[in-house]
Design goal:
The chain is an alpha/beta fold. It folds into two domains: 2-68, no CATH class; 71-254, Rossmann fold (3-Layer(aba) Sandwich), CATH 3.40.50. It has helices at residues 2-11, 14-28, 70-82, 99-109, 154-164, 194-201, 214-219, 230-233, 236-241; strands at 33-38, 45-46, 50-52, 58-62, 92-95, 113-117, 125-126, 139-144, 165-172, 186-187, 208-209, 224-228, 250-254.
Length: 255
């Protein structure tokens, strides 16, 4: 199973995975029936989550029902426990929307919830993150999860996110980090070969590997960066039951 999932996510484009893998994984979930873990997004329970990863799959990572990963479940718990996301109707921009979030977020915020992507067939709006087609001070929240490692100019993209956020609004801006994390973000536009990119940046569709200076890069856009250790505050039982990662830092940009 680990090898099959690894091959799928490594060689099948994301837009096709989003469209066609859901039914198969839900069926597979029958064989993982149990009560040891519970996805906080879809509330389905299993003896464990599926493995997930391109080269060295992580155990207990992927929810078979809604396709959430550890980072998605952490964001969900954070929004529920630390923000007004589920108590008010907000203007939300969700860039490169993940399927696990779309239905519950749209149910909460209705027409004020906007999904956008340059190629995803799931998004409402076709959009280049370098040129967001919305006026300034428009959104209460922007969700930008594991996107900035793919784009040509992350500084321009973050500046656009800052521009469209309302004063007092915030953005969830998660990116992957690979150990050992470099002090300075590394990028090299001359690396174009997919295999060389995978070697340099951890994935063949990445164009940079973020370093310990990520918060400073966020602040150059005009946002105030917060490296939230919310996950560190959660008790061990909740971390295990929801399939979270204890040491994951949430990067939030405040306007």
């Amino acid at each position: 199973m680990q090898k099959i999932i690894s091959l799928l996510i490594r060689y099948v484009p994301r837009k096709y995975l989003q469209l066609f893998t859901g039914i198969g994984l839900k069926t597979l979930g029958v064989f993982y029936a149990g009560h040891q873990v519970e996805c906080p997004i879809c509330n389905h329970r299993y003896r464990q989550f599926l493995p997930y990863g391109r080269i060295n799959p992580r155990q207990n990572a992927l929810c078979p029902h809604c396709l959430s990963l550890e980072r998605h479940r952490l964001i969900w718990v954070y929004l529920k426990e630390k923000t007004n996301f589920f108590s008010e109707k907000l203007d939300v921009l969700h860039i490169a929307p993940e399927p696990c979030f779309m239905k519950p977020f749209e149910k909460q915020h209705r027409e004020k919830y906007i999904t956008a992507d340059i190629e995803s067939p799931l998004a409402k709006v076709k959009m280049d993150i370098h040129d967001i087609p919305f006026p300034e001070n428009h959104f209460d929240l922007v969700l930008c999860n594991h996107v900035l490692e793919h784009v040509k100019d992350d500084s321009k993209a973050m500046s656009e996110i800052c521009r469209v956020l309302k004063p007092g609004g915030f953005a969830v801006m998660q990116v992957p980090f690979f150990s050992p994390v470099p002090d300075i973000t590394f990028e090299d536009a001359s690396i174009t070969n997919p295999r060389e990119r995978e070697k340099a940046f951890g994935q063949d569709d990445h164009v940079r590997i973020f370093g310990k200076d990520y918060a400073k890069r966020i602040e150059k856009s005009g946002l105030k960066a917060e490296a939230s250790k919310f996950a560190f505050e959660l008790n061990e039982e909740k971390v295990h039951r929801n399939g979270l990662v204890r040491n994951e830092v949430l990067y939030i940009g405040h306007k």
